[in-house]
Amino acid sequence: MLDFDMSPYGVFVWSSWGISAVALAAISIRALIAARRWKRELTRLEEARK
Residue 3 has what pLDDT? Predict the structure, then answer.
């Protein structure tokens, strides 16, 4: 069985893991939103060129 008890360091370790997970999720979501925006802009520019 896994032992998740980290005694006096548990608060620091688990909060660090949580903050890192939130930051990675935010960066990923921001990249997806930007990619969609760039794709729409590319489509618009291609249509305007025709």
Answer: 78
